[in-house]
Amino acid sequence: MVPRNKMPDVFLKERYEKDIKYIKITDVYTPNYNQIPITPKFYSKYETGQFDEIDLEILKELKYAKDMLPSEKRDWPETTNQIYGWWSQPLVELNKMDSRFYFPKLESEITKHGLNMLLVKNPRNR
């Protein structure tokens, strides 16, 4: 019989041993390209395993879809999110000499804080 004051130690030891036995910690996740997928798509005509012939029309469409930006493929944005980056030229030319419209921020709060921390670490740089 285990004394009452030693009970938590025995429980924690048993718990630790079970964790070591049943839990495997993985810190690198890479796909296994040599393994066949567990659930193939039975309805797909492309997963038959026959790669002798390549349809050049499909290959051309895939390359077109992959290589071109949406603004190069279409004249107008299709979704609301595409509107934000569709027209990249400004509507009015920016005059950098006009301080009413051009006022760049030279330092932000986080860069000031970072510089102060660096100076505190190395007092010779003050």
UniProtKB/TrEMBL annotation:
<dbReference type="GO" id="GO:0005856">
    <property type="term" value="C:cytoskeleton"/>
</dbReference>
<dbReference type="InterPro" id="IPR029214">
    <property type="entry name" value="CFAP144"/>
</dbReference>
<keyword id="KW-0966">Cell projection</keyword>
<dbReference type="GO" id="GO:0005929">
    <property type="term" value="C:cilium"/>
</dbReference>
<protein>
    <submittedName>
        <fullName>Uncharacterized protein</fullName>
    </submittedName>
</protein>
<comment type="similarity">
    <text>Belongs to the CFAP144 family.</text>
</comment>
<keyword id="KW-0206">Cytoskeleton</keyword>
<dbReference type="Pfam" id="PF14886">
    <property type="entry name" value="FAM183"/>
</dbReference>
<keyword id="KW-0963">Cytoplasm</keyword>
